[in-house]
Amino acid sequence: MTLAPDADTVRLSLDEARSLARRVLSAAGLSPAHVDAVAETMVAGERDGCASHGLYRLLVAADSIAKGVVSVDAAPALDEPAPALVRVDGGGGFAQLAFERGRPLLVEKARRFGIAALALNNVVHFAALWPEVETLARDGLVALAFTPSHAWVAPEGGTKPVFGTNPIAFGWPRPGPHPFVFDFATSATARGEIELRRRAGEPVPADWGASTTVAEDVLAGAMRTFGGHKGSALAAMVELLAGPLIGDLTSQESLDADAGRKGSPLGGELILALDPAGFLGAAAGQHLQRAEALFEAIQAQGARLPSERRYAARAVSEREGVAIPAALHRDILKLLERKD
After folding, report:
1. Residue 285: Cβ within 10 Å count
2. Among 132, 134, 193, 239, which one carries the catalytic annotation?
3. Catalytic option among 13, 19, 31, 52
4. Is 178 a catalytic residue?
5. Separation CA 22–CA 101 (nearest Å)
6. Residue 58 CB neighbours (<10 A)
7. How far apart are CA 134 and CA 137, in angstroms?
8. What is the pTM of this model?
C-alpha cells in the first residue's frame, strides 16, 4: 500500500485489495466460501475502473450484514426444474456463491440443449452483472442476465418509485483475450454512482433524479430511467423476467421485505446462456467471424465498443494496482476497528 503524491488517494496492488476485501468480509462474519466469491467481485469492479462497484461496496456489504439482511453462512441449494433449466436457492446469502454453484450445470445444459437458463432465487444483490456474463462468454457462450433491486426508480411520466435500477448484461464470445460485454442499469445511472457523488459532496446531473441535483435528495426520493419511456419499458421487462417468472420478488416487494433496514436488495436473478454451436453446428466459427466484421465496422469509425474502457483500465490495474480515495480507505479500515 502506498499514498499517492496528493495524499488524497491510497494505491493498492490487486493482491492487497483482495486481502483487504477478504479481511473485512471475514470480520463482518461471512463464511469462507462467501468471502472468496464476494471479494473477487469487488476486486474485479475496482480493477476495471468501476469504482461504484469496487471496494466501496465493502461498506454496503458490511452494512447489510450488520443489519441482518444477509445470511452469512447460507448454503446454496441447486435443483433442476426442467431439462434445460437450473435453479439455485441462495438461502438469503449474497448472489456470488449461488452463481458459482449453478454455473457449471448451466454451461453443461447450454452445450447439451443449445440454450439453458439459470434462476437464482432468494439472493442478496449489491454488485454489477458483467462479471457473470463475462465468465460465461469466456466459456464460449452467449449470455444475458437480469435482476431487479429495490424500488428506487420512478416510471417515465411518474414520480413514485416502482422499479429498481434493474440492470441488463450481455456477453458475446470473441477470439482474443476479451469477450464483448455490456452491463447497464435501466435507471439513468447506477445508484452507487449517486452515492459516490454524495460522499464527495458533488451535485448529480439533472436527469438522474426527479427535479434535483442534490445527491442525497435523489437517494431519498426517486431516480429516473434512462431514455424516457424506452428505459421504463426495459425496467418493467427486468421486473417480470427476474421476478414473477422465476417466482421471486419485484423491486417493490424487495423494498417491503427490507422493512426499513436500508440493506441491499433481496430477490432473484435470471441468466440465459446460448451455445452458438447449438444453432450452427460446425458452422459456428464461420458465423462468429461474421460478428467480428460488425465489431470492426464500429471501431473503424472511431466508435468505442462497450467494455473497451474496462479492459483498458484492467490492463493498467494489473500493472500498477488501483487507487482509491483516502477517505474511503479510512472508512473501510474502520470496519476492522469496529470488529476489534
Report:
1. 11
2. 193
3. 52
4. no
5. 20
6. 23
7. 5
8. 0.92
Q: Identify residue 189 by its one-letter amino acid code.
A: T
User: Of 45, 16, 40, which is closest to residue 30 (Cα–Cα)?
Assistant: 40
Tell me whether residue 187 is one of the annotated catalytic residues. Answer: no
- Looking at the chain, which residues constitute the CATH 3.30.1370.60 domain(s)? 76-187+229-303
Could you give the CA distance from residue 183 to residue 132 in angstroms, rounded to a whole number? 10
- pLDDT digit string (tens) for 78-108? 999 999 999 999 999 999 999 999 999 999 9
Q: Where are the domain boundaries for CATH 1.10.1530.10 in the chain?
A: 1-66+307-340
Q: What is the CATH number of domain 76-187+229-303?
A: 3.30.1370.60
Residue 121, all three cell numbers: 432465487
Tell me the fold of 1-66+307-340: Hypothetical Oxidoreductase Yiak; Chain: A, domain 1 (1.10.1530)
Residue 82: count other Cβ atoms within 10 Å of its Cβ: 10
**Tens-digit pLDDT profile for residues 40-83:** 999 999 999 999 899 999 999 999 999 999 999 999 999 999 99
Cβ-contact 249, 268 below 8 angstroms: yes
| H or E stretch covering 91 | none
Task: Out of 34, 46, 53, 254, pick the active-site residue.
Answer: 53
Say how far apart CA 101 and CA 165 lie, in whole Å.
25
Does residue 52 carry a catalytic annotation? yes
